[in-house]
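I would like you to sit down with the pair of lines that follows and say whether tokens and residues agree.
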Amino acid sequence: MTESENNLNTKTFPDFNFAEGELLLINKPYQWTSFDVVGKIRNSLKPLKVKVGHAGTLDPLATGLLILCTGKLTKQIDTFQAEEKEYTGTMVLGASTPSFDMETVVDQEYPLEGLTEEAIYAATAPFTGDIQQYPPAHSAVKVNGERLYVKARRGEETELRLRFVTVSTFEITRIALPEVDFRIVCSKGTYIRSLISDFGKHLNNGAYLSVLTRTRSGNFLLENAYEVADLVAHLRSKKELPAPSTAPQI
């Protein structure tokens, strides 16, 4: 276990006031949806009728920092969601998938011969600053009230709209072809999957996302997040404690 993983597993819990409002930093597990996490926490708070929402969706295959707000603090979700994000991850060069990640199987392969480290490092420049990108066809973006991934799974094609986003940092941290590790700092609404797919096309090659972790949102850090299982166990243990006596002291 790494030091950061150990820190995640040794959090202490304050005296929460969920109705008034709590901001919870959660390490979203792999293959969980963001709504899975919200539902798990909401169910753990029953029979309290407390609003719970998240500030910024993470794809099921991504892990890392998910901000949850409860009670009156849910009114500030848009504020937290608008903050700058930081991600680390791994892309695979030499292949592409329809979803731009590992949700779907490889549909095309490309040769890696002649692809140099210098070219890979240089290819980050066009994707730094204010850029335009299309959301993945397999995404939670709604078109005419329906999620794109629902349409994609039916085999329907949908006209996608360009988005304007800002990427302040796109750093290559390791090259071990076909794998390339990266760190990205970007604005709200940036699709890392789309960025990686476009990165591969810029190299006249293919690329898809194999690992993604959100490490920061605004000033909130993954290293300060709770594990879902630990938080749920704590909330359930609080329910099992006897209620304080209201009898007068003699």
